[in-house]
Amino acid sequence: MSNFWQRTLTGILFVVVILGCVWAGRWPFFGLLFVINVLGLWEFTGLFNKNGYSLSRWPVLVSGISVFTLMSLVVYSIIDATWLYLTPLLFILFIIELFRAKNNPLTNIGLGITAIVYISVPLALFIYISNIAFEYTPFLAMTCFLLIWASDTFAYLAGRAFGKTPLFTRISPKKTWEGFAGGVIGAIGVSLILAYYSPSYKWTELTGLALIFAVFGTLGDLVESMLKRSLNVKDSGNILPGHGGILDRFDALLFSMPFAFVYIFIKMMVEFWNFKV
Q1: Per-residue model confidence as pLDDT tens digits over 159-194
Q2: Higher-confidence position of 81 and 179
Q3: How far from the centroid of its chain's Cα atoms is residue 77's Cα?
Q4: Do 187 and 210 contact (CB within 8 A), yes or no?
Q5: 244 - beta bridge partners?
Q6: How far does the chain reach from its first CA to its final CA, in angstroms?
Q7: How far is CA 269 from CA 19, 80, 137, in A?
């Protein structure tokens, strides 16, 4: 019972902080994702270093923070848009390994780049999504969070009530196809409610986004479970009492965000060409 109340209170505070930052403006939202990025990178490097690897934590942090910040500042039109600014940052990890003289340097480099691609880049793409046409859109940022939470919550409830057919036994024995279907239906249902109250987004657009978050969010959860199983750990961390670590809470968002970015980008391009025609 104590764990239940701990999870409940942490969950409520978690939602309030996130939605508060979303609606407070683009800089509080940037600050929220910046903190998630730093904590996620710290957690990722710590997980592997506790299990026999020797990632260079500070260079990974500096590179990941730089990639996230520069990509965000491009979106905010504070610096010129050129991806060449980002290219040398990842090569810092190669240079550092020259002087560390650790075993398996290529493994360390690969894991460092994986951390940046897995955590920093998706969060920067979330900044882009929340700034459609270079104007901060809190409704869309909130929608992304709500659809992910809806998919996760309804998948859990449907799995508990109807789950019989294993989805991916080797990685996550408790996940079922019935739970997955419940997550998809729940996310679509929430998207229809949001579309009803939105003056800017059609139900077809938000339904497409719901499908992306339900499908790739589930895959993201499985990927993180695979990562934890490979390291023989239950949670990625303990920063959120009763809920585990940052990667445990944001695995679905991190993995699905690049796909949501492509979906929204294609939608914008289609609208642009239709307007020109």
Answers
A1: 999 989 998 888 888 899 999 999 999 999 999 999
A2: 179
A3: 23
A4: yes
A5: 240
A6: 61
A7: 29, 21, 18
